[in-house]
Model the fold of this input.
Amino acid sequence: MTIKKILVANRGEIACRVMRSCRDVGIATVAVYSEADSAALHVDMADDAVWIGPPPARESYLDIGKIIDAAKATGADAIHPGYGFLSENEDFAEAIAKAGLIFIGPPVAAIRAMGGKSEAKALMEKAGVPLVPGYHGDNQDEKFLAAEAQKIGYPLLIKASAGGGGKGMRVVEKPGDFAEALGAARREAKAAFGDDHVLIEKYLTRPRHVEIQVFADRAGNTVYLFERDCSIQRRHQKVIEEAPAPGLAPETRAKMGAAAVAAAKAIGYEGAGTVEFLLDTDGSFYFMEMNTRLQVEHPVTEMITGLDLVALQISVAEGQDLPFTQDDLAINGHAIEVRLYAEDPANNFLPGAGQIQYLSFPLQRDAVRVDTGVREAPFGDGDVISIHYDPMIAKIIVHGADRAQAIERLSAALADTHVAGPKTNLNFLRAIAAHPAFAAADLDTRFIERHADVLLPAQKPRLDNATLALAALGVLHLRAEAETAGIKPAADPTSPWQHRGGWRIGGADTETLVFNDGTSDCSVKLSCKDGLDSPVLSLPDGSLIAARFAPAAEDMGFYALLEDEEFHAVALRDGNRLTVMHTGVGAEMVWHDPLNAEFAQEDTAGRLTAPMPGKVVAVRVQLGDAVKKGQPLVIVEAMKMEHTIVAPVDGKVTAINANIGEQVDEKRELIALE
Done:
């Protein structure tokens, strides 16, 4: 059967990614969208679009009936699920088949076989695939699980049997923490997947996360497209992925590939899938799970094989055989992908939300690729990162002849990436790319934890001279823009009203600007004797002359020549908060504007507020309780993750302003301490 029109049952960057491949092979696309995504990029990219409900995913993207109806109404032949949402839902795949449509994914039986981690591990055990020691059974009694945990030994890992992506997962270091961790994992699993069934495994102390990309057609031809190393993770979710896995011995690659192919054949697999393993320091590997869908990190496999995996999925769904055998496949160079998220690494990677005020990606070439579901917005407000969905902004992928060149290109691409609006992990990604342990491929799943002192410093680094100078010039640039906004050019170009220098009647020719970088105030003295074209800046570490200072014609930024170094910078103001971006730097600071005296931070001592909009799922204290520093007080669920709010100091609970099940806004006071 030839597929002519595909409905993409997803959103964001994966929806855009699928649509690009469909366009390349001449297939029309249909987008589905919630109210929150009515102006989203994937909606604009599609040939047709159908509104399917309000923002909550359960009322839109997770509603099987609405998606099937949208496919029928638009004449779609097939449905591509992307990843996340319904991509591994057997009921969804079955409903598509009953509707007479093509599901671009594996058979229902294969999804069912691998849909539960416990059942999948039992299946792999029968097939002789090595497993991590643990309990994967049906008995979910808390006392029984605690006893099994004692047999396995600590540290151990509690994992949701259904789903993935780090949801419903907890590391437990000692027996006294087991009950609390089990309860949290169950609640999170229930909220994310509708199933609170868990399994328990031994927690390996320095494993690598290595996964094998498999592909199979209906004739039973099955190959592996080599491996990806996804060891660098936070909250058990991947941050950086690369292919091939650094330092993996060819014989180990062959064994892992053969095991992955055997797993796929054992369940009659078709299409793209990923078999995930833990690789121990001695070279032994253990089956974790199989993802019966396309993976977020599939672009690195595409980079080293030259294949379009989405186009290959479509051809297999049409009944075509794979156009190659295992012997035809070879690894070409090295590829690395990083996930750019709206999140705060300094605050335990708390997911963020909000409008993107500025977004600029590196120029895409053969060696650099950006997969995104949001628009670049160099001239104004961009798209919104919604609280209802995953906070990914983009994936930045690079390719090199070898790993060293790929890392070099990654650093350059991240230096040319800029975001303003919600907090992001961009500087964190830059720090990883520059870390010597990353360059040395000293990788394991606790990489971030081991190098937290460098990657997540307790104190923000002091603003350097160049960034401070650009902040001051940015203030001048913003003032000049404000002065000329909406004013038509004068007929006489020599008119004094055309002059935008620092001189004013009765005014001084110097000004001191004060910025706070989060730790201390920094003063910059500006001398504009010759106007704004070449101001002198007196800085904490000496003086600089801006030999050239002019607005950039191509975007909302400006150019500055500081001594002998050329800078292209962008400054954005939100109240008294100033964001300054230039090559490899994104700095936020407070500008103490004397014309706006509201820069003082609100005194929140003794108050505990919601870090973001969410639902209260647990209140651990009662009015009048004495609490210790670090004691859990309230648990808020937001963006499918639980966030525990703890006591910042010893104290006494004087007010409880949150009830279990209540939706709370960001900065809503939940608990008051005395």
Remarks:
- Confidence is low (pLDDT under 50) at residues 499-508, 598-605.
- Residues 465-484 form the longest helix (20 residues).
